[in-house]
Amino acid sequence: MLRPSLEFTQYASSEYRQALQRLEALQSMSRKGECWDNAAIESFFSTLKLELDLQKAQGNRADTRSLVFEWIEVFYNRERCHSSLGYRSPTRFEEYRAALN
């Protein structure tokens, strides 16, 4: 099972906020348990956890990283149809939008 890389306390820590500030990154955060603020990414990670077969990783970090990359870049972006995109993959949807312009 994939775990979030940061627990809420780490996400809210001053050290983490300082790192974001150095990178000039904007932190978006509400109260703990308020997933509605980030519904799109919550949905993405839910899909990732449901569809990705982590048994193939065999507990190896490099294998897991490779599997996640392949799932996102090959399957999710190029092959998986998304109802919100008219049942097209993100790549096909971008091609469709470009053809309209």
From TrEMBL:
GO function term, MF aspect, one: nucleic acid binding
Database matches in Pfam families: rve_3
Record field: transmembrane? none
Q: Which InterPro entries match?
A: Integrase_cat-core, RNaseH-like_sf, RNaseH_sf, Transposase_IS3/IS150/IS904
Top-level taxon of the source organism: Bacteria
Q: Which residues form the Integrase catalytic domain?
A: 27-90
Q: Which GO BP terms sit in this record?
A: DNA integration
PANTHER family linked: TRANSPOSASE INSF FOR INSERTION SEQUENCE IS3B-RELATED, TRANSPOSASE INSO FOR INSERTION SEQUENCE ELEMENT IS911B-RELATED
The name this protein carries in UniProt is Transposase
Write the lineage as a comma-separated list.
Bacteria, Thermotogati, Deinococcota, Deinococci, Deinococcales
